[in-house]
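Write out this protein's structure.
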Amino acid sequence: MVYSLFPGGKRLRPALVVLGHRACSGRHPEIYRLAACAELVHTFTLIHDDLPCMDDDDFRRGRPSSHKVFGEALAVLAGDALLNLAYQVIASLRCDARLKERVLTSLSSAVGIGGVLGGQVADIEAEGMEIPEARLRKVHLQKTASLFVASLVLGGDLAGGGKAELDRLRLFGRDFGLLFQIVDDLLNVEGTPVALGRPAGSDERHRKATYPRIVGLELSRQRMTRLAHSAQRTAAGMGWLAPVFSDLVRTVLARLPRPDGEER
C-alpha cells in the first residue's frame, strides 16, 4: 500500500478536494484527512487498472507496478485495502453526521457501478470495438471524470456548500475530467514514457476505446480545445479562486506537446 501511495504523482485529486472546500468558503479542520481519502481511492484504481486482467501495465509513475513487485494477489488485496481505508477514515471524521453522510454518498456513488467501476466495465467491454463517440464519452465520464467531480464535491460537501456552488463544481469537474482523459489518450499515442510514467502505445496494443482511435487525432484535439474553453468559462465564475481553476486547465493542456513542437 505504501509503495503505491508514495512514488510521487501529481496529487491532483486531493488538491481538488481542498479547492472545492475553499470554493464553498470552507475551513473545516478535517479537510486534509478527507483529501487524503481521494488519493487512497485513486491509488486503488491505479493498482487494479495495471493488473494483467485489466490494462496490463508493468509500470506506473515511472517504476514497476504493484503486481510486478509484490505479485497479483497482493496487488489486488492492496487495492481493496486502500479503498476500505478511505471509507474507514471518512467514518472517523470529526464532523456533523449530516455532512459525513453527504461525503460518504458522494464518494461511494463516484466509485460504484455508476462511476469508476461501472466505467471500467464499459471500458473492458469496448476493447477492440468501434463504438460511437457518445458511448466513448459516457465511458470516460464514468471511469475518469466521476472521481474528479467527486473530489471537488467532497470538499464542497464538507463545507456545507449550497446547490448552486456544488453544481458549478460538478460542471467544472466533468469538463476537466474529460479534458484530462483526452490529453492522456493523446499522450499514449504521441507522448514519451517519461511524460506518461509508463510505456506509450499501450492503448493501441490493447485496442482500447480512446478518442484517437475512435475519432482520430485531429478531432480529438478539437474536442480537447472545446472542453478546455468550457472549463475555463466555468472557472471564470469561481470568484477569488478563478485563477486557480483556470491554471488547472492550462496545466493539463501543458502535458501535451504542441504539434509545432513549441511549449504551450
